[in-house]
Design a protein that fits this description.
single chain, mainly beta, Rubrerythrin, domain 2, 4 strands
Length: 66
């Protein structure tokens, strides 16, 4: 059976504001979450509001490449 054709895929969500502010070297890290999405219902990149412990607030987390 072909496993690469699964409907649900695992994705990584990364904090957008931590990535932008990492140039300042003030941030301690980048917040990342692991979740799943349905490939057929959501073909575009996923963006969710999640809590970032490094920013200490709710920020937008966008899907990144593996």
């Amino acid at each position: 059976m072909a496993k690469s054709k699964d409907v649900r895929v695992t994705i990584i969500l990364e904090c957008i504001s931590c990535v932008r502010n990492s140039v300042n070297k003030d941030s301690r890290g980048i917040s990342r979450y692991i979740t799943q999405k349905n490939r057929h219902k959501t073909p575009s990149r996923l963006e969710l509001k999640k809590f970032c412990p490094f920013c200490s607030k709710h920020t937008t987390h966008g899907e990144i490449k593996k």
